Amino acid sequence: MAAQLRPASGAQPTAQSVIDTAVGLIPDARWASVTIRSGRRSFETLTSTHDEARAADRLQYELGEGPCVDAATEVGWLRTGDVGHDPRWPTWGPQASRLGVSSLLSLQLTSDDQPVGALNLYSPEPDLFRDDDEIAFALLYASHAALALTSTRQIEGLRSAISSRHVIGLAQGILMERYDLTVDTSFALLRRYSNVHNAKLARVAADVVSTRRLPSGAGADGGGPTPGTADPG
């Protein structure tokens, strides 16, 4: 199932496939969204099927309270059939109810046994997500969804790393030709500039490729190293 949920490329299309399929397969789910952790207590909605789901998610992030936030950080899964009166979320619940949310099932998404987000299933109708078989299926589905999303993000990370390494290699070639540097010295110079100016190495390399020279201040004379004598630092 995880392979079927993962389109050709991209976390966004994969997440969209996850939520579209969830709404189609899980009877009580009317709307769906994917919450991703972007920090210890920082979250974002990767995608949603409806504006109501995204708005309910965003309200949780702003308040720091709600089933999506709890499922994405600590609890494996959470359900409620009466959002507006659930004592676990006294601030978020009534406000979410005014958005049209009545029932919700939030399922933790994990990577290497660590929580990375949540699959959120919403309904405007009360007292849903009570069937044990439906919840068991939703939990199984969430595990496949997590695998698909994690795999996609790993592939994207690998592609990004390969692309960055290619740009760095191009920048080294430019510096070697322009300033008569060795392979090791050209890389050391890029790294030194990156460290001194707190800039990502790939960004520095991209600037070199674009301008055909090191940024101002990279060398002793402010314009670049002395040919053949650059200090690798």
TrEMBL record:
Keyword Aminoacyl-tRNA synthetase: no
Residue segments, region Disordered: 214-233
One Gene Ontology MF term: kinase activity
Limits of the ANTAR domain: 148-209
Keywords noted in UniProt: Kinase, Transcription, Transcription regulation, Transferase
SUPFAM superfamilies according to UniProt: CheY-like (SSF52172), GAF domain-like (SSF55781)
InterPro entries assigned to the protein according to its UniProt record, in alphabetical order: ANTAR (IPR005561), CheY-like_superfamily (IPR011006), GAF (IPR003018), GAF-like_dom_sf (IPR029016), GAF_ANTAR (IPR012074), WH-like_DNA-bd_sf (IPR036388)
Keyword set includes Transcription: yes
Protein name: GAF domain-containing protein
Lineage per the UniProt record: Bacteria, Bacillati, Actinomycetota, Actinomycetes, Propionibacteriales
